[in-house]
Amino acid sequence: MRKLLLSAAVSALMTSAAMAENIGVSMALFDDNFLTVLRNGMVEYGKTLDGVNLQVEDAQNDVAKQLDQIKNFIASGVDAIIVNPVDTSATQAMSDAAAAAKVPLVYVNREPINVDTLPDNQAFVASNEQESGTLETQEVCRLFKEAGKTEAHVYVIMGELSNQAAVMRTKDIDDVIATPECSFIKIIDKQTSNWRRDEAQNLMTNWLSTGTKFDGVIANNDESAIGAIQAMKAAGIDMKSVVVGGVDATQDALAAMQAGDLDATVFQDAAGQGKGSVDAALKLAKGEAVDQKVYIPFQLVTPANIGDFLKKN
Fold this sequence. Notes:
Blueprint: H1 2-19, E1 21-27, H2 33-47, E2 52-58, H3 63-76, E3 80-83, H4 92-100, E4 105-108, E5 122-126, H5 129-146, E6 152-158, H6 164-177, E7 185-192, H7 197-209, E8 216-219, H8 222-234, E9 243-245, H9 251-258, E10 265-267, H10 270-285, E11 293-295, E12 299-301
Parallel strand pairs: 1-2, 1-3, 3-4, 4-5, 5-11, 6-7, 6-8, 8-9
Antiparallel strand pairs: 10-12
Helix pairs in contact: 2-10, 3-4, 5-6, 7-8
């Protein structure tokens, strides 16, 4: 009887070990509001899953460091890897390393350059960037029309130029402005702030120093929009006289909207993307099929519906 019980205990232990999943997570950087929500979403969701362990590393915006992290994950025998890429044009080497080791890999939030040629055990979880800048710019256009503008001049603040999301969101802006409905909007200048609030504040300060008249700012993300707002307020500009749009619906952005400074943002479900990436990684680790592109919808946020989003990001 004792031998039978011992056998059952060993069997249960082996089953538990077999079910345990170790996932290596490489984040582009920890020092970013939106990516912090994304990372926390992954970690908190992982805690609700029995036998799932997440090892989260900070690539500190260094492509070489991120590739080394992926190689280290592979060497340590993780069951799957999740990557939030530093540079979306440098993902082929990451895919190749994981594929050679037969370790499943999931890209999250930032679209890899090789997204259309990913191996069967790799996937991409994010939101469709064709929606983000489009929703934002259409709302900015609507607000200009509502204010009776027949011609409007705007500045565009872009994210990191090596990042597919920045490229796509900027293209969205251009595409909306190219439509007959919004062709009255003219872009004065467009420059990058590398997603950062401080760089956007400096950029906006420089633009303001030219004395050029403008009607609004369309930013690739909320941090950049907030930086622009800070510069405008420091210059004594009445925020009611300009239209400002961003993307992400971070808590800071929603606070800016409640203060009457930010006019539009687009909710990107960071926690949803985090959960989706973990689910995809676990399925791939078990040999299950996963859609290679998993999209979490974007949603426009305005003062009219802000209450629906105050506790989401």
